[in-house]
Design goal:
alpha/beta; Rossmann fold; N-(1-d-carboxylethyl)-l-norvaline Dehydrogenase, domain 2; 11% strand; globular
Length: 344
């Protein structure tokens, strides 16, 4: 079977069912994923309220949407009353469980019939069901914003979540655990290790893109937000210091104007020599002598990190392949990360 046929087959199997009618929706939270979901719902034909925590977040969201030319159809506000009559209410704050439940509870008070959706990771479906009345769903979308090609839905979520994903033009996958998050963590951690050991973000990204990745892992991480990886580091006890120094210094990625790259004026990425200095300094503190890492080694290590993570997931390998392409940007021409190894 060709790589294209392999991916098409699993897509066809997951594409059954109808989209949920969607005319009004509300999203709370200032993350890049929140903005991406708001844009996707407008594209699906809904009127969308994007509810921010304060005027500063409101201005930042308005600026980002204006630069992208995607402000039409989105009401920006700090007032949760704008969730009235919404069929779907989404919390995409990346906050702790208390904040997430508070945001959803307040919107549900205004729109009691709405499907309550939380964008993971960092919260469990059980916690949502215990803390909220009404239909709940836990979802995740790991493609770098603004792309929402795939939505993973935690098993046990309200069935309407599948129709919601289809309404956004995304492929829904019901999963026992979020697969994209596991694959992306492995890819991001290997990229960080390469930078720590002597490469640079732009060398890592150039090697990945030369291999066929849709976007290099450092640039993709800037779009998702480096604070997500920083939060994961704190939970897992991650022992690489680069991101754990970057985030406290305000390097949050594109949403903060600087991460692995700089984004002057909110525009495209440009190389930032300061990040190379930061990584070399941390390597010196750790007693590590940086070395030049050839492109072939960078490619091999990134791909092997994905292979190891993919093989550790006890799910259909074809689903892993599709997630590796849609969430991680692994080259579709290779059929997905496990198909590429002959295990697909």
């Amino acid at each position: 079977m060709s790589p294209a046929d392999h991916l098409a087959q699993i897509r066809a199997r997951l594409s059954q069912g109808e989209a949920m009618p969607l005319s009004r929706a509300a999203v709370a939270g200032g993350s890049p994923q929140a903005l991406g979901l708001a844009v996707a719902m407008v594209t699906a034909g809904a009127e969308v309220a994007l509810i921010e925590a304060d005027d500063w977040d409101l201005t930042r969201a308005r600026d980002a949407l204006t630069r992208a030319g995607r402000l039409d159809g989105i009401t920006l506000t700090t007032d949760s009353a704008t969730a009235e009559s919404a069929e779907v209410i989404v919390e995409a704050s990346e906050g702790d469980i208390g904040l997430r439940l508070a945001l959803l509870s307040e919107m549900a008070r205004i729109a009691p019939e709405a499907l309550r959706v939380s964008l993971g990771p960092g919260v469990s479906l059980g916690a949502l069901k215990d803390g909220l009345r009404g239909p709940v769903a836990l979802i995740d979308t790991d493609a770098p914003p603004p792309a929402i090609d795939l939505i993973e839905i935690a098993k046990g979520s309200d069935p309407r979540a599948v129709g919601f994903a289809r309404a956004l033009g995304a492929l829904p996958i019901v999963v026992p655990l979020f697969l994209g998050a596991k694959l992306i963590a492995a890819l991001e951690d290997e990229a960080e290790a390469l930078v720590f050991q002597g490469s640079t973000p732009w060398e890592v990204d150039a090697a990945a893109e030369a291999y066929g990745f849709a976007l290099g892992p450092c640039a993709a991480q800037d779009l998702r937000g480096l604070d997500r990886a920083h939060a994961r580091h704190r939970v897992t006890g991650h022992d690489l210091p680069v991101i754990d120094r970057m985030v406290p210094e305000g390097r949050l990625g594109r949403k903060g104007g600087v991460g692995w790259y700089r984004y002057p004026g909110g525009g495209g990425r440009v190389i930032d020599p300061l990040i190379e200095d930061l990584a070399r300094e941390e390597a010196h503190f750790a007693g590590l002598a940086p070395r030049e890492i050839p492109e072939a080694e960078i490619q091999l290590r990134l791909v092997n990190a994905l292979i190891r993570a993919g093989r550790a997931l006890v799910v259909d390998p074809a689903v892993v392949d599709l997630v590796s392409v849609l969430a991680c940007g692994f080259p579709a021409a290779k059929g997905g990360v496990l198909f590429h190894t002959g295990r697909g």
